Amino acid sequence: VSVGEGMILYSASNSATEDEINEFCNALKMAGRLDKIPEELIDAGSVVSGCGPAFVYLFANALAQAGENCGLSKDKALDYAAQTLIGAGKMLQNSNTSPEQLIKNVCSPGGTTIEGVNYFNNSDFNKIVNDALIRADRIEKNANILGNNIEIFKKQLKMLGFSFDWDKELSTADPNYYKWTQWIFKQLYKD
Length: 191
What we know:
Layout: E1 6-10, H1 18-28, E2 32-36, H2 42-69, H3 74-94, H4 99-106, H5 112-122, H6 125-148, H7 150-159, H8 166-169, H9 177-188
Parallel strand pairs: 1-2
């Protein structure tokens, strides 16, 4: 969003006029692309577009660290990783080619790229990413449930033995609100 390349998801009620929707979109268009989706998909979309940057940074960091381990300077490795992500992202966004086909297009049989791709596949890379998104989605949905049912939830947690000043600590005006809801759900939904 801060570089004008965010993915902003929104839904609009039936009472929102076309002019209001256009005004909203115009106000946010400098932040990136906007996509109107049904309200029930906002959490799922937010996990991909909202959590996704951190996951991409995680991969970029790992890619750069591996480049350093292969002999590149830290600056060069990070620059190469960042540019690779930019180029691959643009290719994915601007072509009508599936990610699977783009992978095949880059790999040569018996080459270096296919060796790395096979290692990712054998290490359950897709499962790791899927599990991370599902965990984030569960927290997101539960935080929304908490926000919608805060009074009921406060009573339930009080019965479970949580004791602190609810009005102070979980006020929606409190900047720690989201941090507290994440902590509570992590305690309640530990694997």
